[in-house]
User: Which sequence fits this backbone?
């Protein structure tokens, strides 16, 4: 079974630009969650999508948005990029239909803002 | 906000020794999970312990949970150089407004 795939692996952008990151979950998983990981703040939850609907949202500004498609693939968009957005963005999938299911992570997209 | 705080932040041991990492959290939880992250990679799920469980084993891993103290520990026995990684606890809170929340992590280095 293929794991969670995130593309691209690395991305360099400049301030003010926007970026779209992609995540393909494990086949059969309907929940996709996104996290931002930085040395200073650690792992911060961005949002979770389940069956194309946003089910949970973390404390990030509206510049961060996402969506999920009917095949459960998800995209995350960040607009008007700031230097502080430099981070490793991780997505994780699970069945999402009951409590206590482990998250399966991709290897992330490393975003650098110049 | 960080629900879990790991202790110590960093740990260096010799191969063959045991490694113990602790996690403290603040709110009531459904379960607590431990994950491992190798440098530059995603997180890998290690073990899940439910709030009504006190101890769980998986191979060389032993996890304990004390809900009265809001703390958990991860013990890795007979460590190997390949265990070198960062280890995170993650709490699944009972509050419906929150999702899985990760701690700050413990960086473990196992010297061959």
Assistant:
């Amino acid at each position: 079974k293929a794991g969670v795939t995130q593309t691209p692996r690395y991305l360099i952008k400049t301030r003010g630009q926007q970026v779209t990151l992609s995540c393909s979950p494990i086949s059969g998983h309907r929940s996709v969650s996104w996290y931002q990981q930085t040395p200073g703040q650690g792992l911060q939850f961005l949002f979770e999508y389940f069956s194309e609907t946003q089910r949970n949202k973390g404390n990030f500004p509206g510049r961060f948005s996402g969506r999920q498609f009917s095949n459960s693939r998800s995209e995350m968009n960040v607009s008007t990029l700031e230097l502080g957005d430099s981070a490793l963005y991780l997505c994780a999938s699970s069945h999402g239909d009951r409590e206590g299911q482990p998250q399966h992570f991709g290897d992330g997209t490393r975003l650098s803002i110049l | 906000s960080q629900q879990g705080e790991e202790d110590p932040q960093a740990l260096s041991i010799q191969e063959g020794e045991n490694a113990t990492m602790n996690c403290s959290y603040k709110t009531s939880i459904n379960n607590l999970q431990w994950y491992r992250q190798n440098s530059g990679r995603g997180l890998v799920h290690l073990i899940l312990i439910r709030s009504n469980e006190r101890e769980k084993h998986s191979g060389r891993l032993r996890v304990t949970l004390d809900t009265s103290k809001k703390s958990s520990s991860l013990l890795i026995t007979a460590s190997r150089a390949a265990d070198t990684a960062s280890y995170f606890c993650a709490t699944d809170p009972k509050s419906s407004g929150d999702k899985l929340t990760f701690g700050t992590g413990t960086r473990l280095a196992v010297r061959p």
In short: The interface with chain B takes residues 4, 6, 33, 35, 42-43, 45, 48, 56, 58-59, 90, 92, 99-100, 102-108, 110 of chain A (CB under 8 Å). Chain A has no helices and eleven strands. The first strand of chain A starts at residue 5 and ends at 7. The mean pLDDT of chain A is 94.
